[in-house]
Amino acid sequence: MHVETGVRLDTLSTLGVPSSADYFCRVTSDSDWLEALDYATNHDLPLTILGGGSNVILGDQIRGIVVHPVGDDIELIEQTGKSVLIEVLAGAHWDWLVRYCNQRGWYGLENLVSIPGSCGAAPVQNVGAYGVEIAEFIDSVRVLDLHTSMFAHIQGQDCGFTYRDSHFKGPWRDRYAIVSIRLRLSKVPMVNTNYAALANALVATGLHEPSPLDVLNTVAAIRAAKLPDVHLMPNSGSFFKNPIVSISQAQSLKAQYPDLPLYDVDAQNSKLSAAYLIETAGLKGYCGDGCGISQQHALVLVNEGHASGAACVELAQHVINTVQAKFGVTLHIEPVVIGL
Ligand SMILES: Cc1cc2nc3c(=O)[nH]c(=O)nc-3n(C[C@H](O)[C@H](O)[C@H](O)COP(=O)(O)OP(=O)(O)OC[C@H]3O[C@@H](n4cnc5c(N)ncnc54)[C@H](O)[C@@H]3O)c2cc1C
Asked: What band does 265 get if pLDDT is binned at 50, 70 and 90?
């Protein structure tokens, strides 16, 4: 483990904002993690974990030490006739893992293909797409307790997984580093085609009984067509969460805006489409200071010209205020704001 100083982070977040870290190191093994934590403690530095940088808005200068997990070791912990339990290091790329598991005949993750970022960060916001969330497959998460320097396994059911959220994004944010994750996957081919856009795309291509690989390829194709490429137009994916409101508020909005998409949450609440609200408020394609709302997708904030993290947050606040004024609904930012 080697600590560098004054490291530029501009290319380490997909939003591509200018940023630098006072101190920076890469970690793979348990001993690397412990050394990084010791370094932070001995030098009295705050410790920030940066994975693939696909869900963060970075400030100009990140104080303290930025720890970047690397390494893609994967271990088969146990298997039965029907399932496998695997453990993969935090530094592995999530999209690589999804494709690798599908090739090995370990099924379940196909709908989550093409989500950028690392395996260690995937439980942090309970990554989800096309009707599937990682919470369904997390057996446990191996963590380093940053307060006690002890390693521990936390069971999936104790992680507080909800829509785009978990305890790791909330009360545990500065407490645990995720060192590896354990996933239980099916050896029996299984597909989840409940999500309407996915089901329609499969039928449109004549795939009436799709295999897991068909689902993976179809989701990858839909995403490639729908989302701006981060290499061409830096962005951090969906910038706003779909807001959850009471059923009565959802119904009164639906009466005013009959084409507003609504999704059931539970007996009291409905989820609204943030993209619809932003687009209907006239903000799709809106230009801010070097950044804007994508022409391609209203949920995506794009950094068109090296805008700072602060400028991106300012633009997001303008979107939040405009949607609040028009619909009386509060949007919340999905990425984690660091150093602002
Ligand atoms: C084009 C695009 C499309 C996307 N599509 C989706 C989607 O469909 N669904 C979805 O859910 N998300 C999506 N995202 C968001 C993002 O890809 C995921 O949230 C991803 O899991 C973030 O991984 P990361 O390694 O880049 O995390 P980072 O951005 O590096 O970090 C995110 C947060 O997790 C923390 N963190 C990172 N690693 C660890 C660790 N090992 N231990 C503890 N904390 C850690 C960080 O400190 C930070 O708070 C998309 C992003 C982009 C750019």
From this structure: confident
Q: Which residue among the candidates 180, 238, 270, 294 is catalytic per the annotation?
A: 238
Do 176 and 79 lie in one domain? The reply is yes
Residue nearest to atom 15 of ligand 1 (CA): 55
Q: Is any atom of ligand 1 closer than 6 Å to the C-beta of 222?
A: no
250 and 146 belong to one structural domain: no
- The boundaries of the domain holding residue 99 are 74-186
In this structure, are 175 and 244 located in the same domain? no
Q: Helix, strand or coil for residue 285?
A: coil
| Residue 166 known to be catalytic | no
Cα of 119 to ligand 1 centre, how many Å? 9
CATH assignment of the domain containing 275: 3.90.78.10
Give residues with Cβ within 8 angstroms of 213, minimum separation 6: 102, 110
For 47-95, what is each residue's pLDDT tens digit?
A: 999 999 999 999 999 999 999 999 999 999 999 999 999 999 999 999 9
> Is 191 domain-assigned?
no
Token pair listed for 293: 């709302």
**Amino acid in position 55:** N
177 and 271 part of one domain: no
Task: For residues 154 and 201, state if they share a domain.
Answer: no
Ligand 1 centroid from CA 52, angstroms: 7
Residues facing residue 174 across a β-bridge: none
Q: What is the pLDDT of residues 129-185, one digit of tens each?
A: 999 999 999 999 999 999 999 999 999 999 999 989 999 999 999 999 999 999 999
**How much is the CA Rg of the chain, to the nearest whole Å?**
20
